[in-house]
Write a structure and sequence with these properties.
11 strands; about 30% helix
Length: about 240
């Protein structure tokens, strides 16, 4: 089976170099606001789906929750495992095939860690897997970019210099996907990676979630959990429950 773009790119050390400036304060701000809104009981079980290097999961555990982080990237999980302790665990795992059933109080899918697959069916299967993993009264939270604003403000070409590497980035929309081509030279070698994320709108999520047996209970447009506005909001944050 052919490996997908995300299996190459998220496992590459260059992915972490390019995005090394990602903001922990911003992640903690979102978690503070979400936990204040959801009010989970102490020691609630929380699943962080596509956890990356674990910044949300680590902070959630510090707040007293029992947290499991999963990600397809072996490199990210290897990094995250150094923070493991009694109530914090990390595993290499595919979000489409979650093992736990009716186990978690909350499942989180943060920072546009969705929309990577080729077909709607695969996305619905992933959402069904998320649904299975939470208890009957559990909550799923998806944090996606606001596609409409992203497309409207797309910078087609930019160069980012990080740790002495010049990343040449080309973004465009094609076939319902927002695509980012990333080219650079390092140690006299040329590298080319890409990111392909589905341009899902709120109505796309409504349709897919319904097919998955989930319903949206609240929608927010930023990490302060303010109202969602399709033209102005930075994020599309969906709080979902089992139907």
């Amino acid at each position: 089976m052919q490996r997908k773009w995300f299996q190459y790119w998220f496992n590459s050390p260059y992915y972490h170099i390019l995005y090394s400036q990602r903001n922990d304060e911003e992640a903690e701000f979102l978690i503070d606001n979400l936990t204040a809104y959801l009010r989970p009981a102490a020691e609630s079980r929380i699943l962080d789906i596509a956890c990356g290097r674990g910044r949300h999961a680590i902070y959630l555990q510090k707040k007293g929750f029992d947290v499991t982080g999963i990600d397809l990237s072996e490199q990210s999980i290897k990094y995250a495992k150094q923070f493991e302790q009694k109530h914090l665990h990390f595993f290499v795992h595919d979000m489409r095939k979650l093992g736990y059933i009716n186990y978690y109080d909350i499942a989180l899918n943060m920072f546009t860690s969705f929309g990577y697959f080729d077909t709607e069916k695969e996305h619905v299967n992933a959402l069904k897997s998320f649904r299975k993993s939470i208890k009957d009264d559990g909550t799923l939270v998806i944090d996606y970019f606001n596609t409409q604003k992203i497309i409207k403000n797309l910078t087609q070409r930019e160069t980012k210099s990080v740790e002495g590497i010049e990343f040449d980035i080309h973004k465009y929309v094609s076939d319902g996907k927002i695509i980012k081509n990333i080219d650079f030279e390092h140690k006299s070698k040329h590298f080319a990676f890409e990111e392909r994320v589905q341009a899902f709108s709120k109505s796309d999520f409504e349709r897919m979630l319904e097919k998955s047996g989930l319903a949206i209970k609240a929608v927010f447009g930023n990490y302060a959990l303010e109202e969602f506005d399709e033209t102005k909001s930075d994020r599309l944050i969906l709080v979902c429950k089992k139907i």
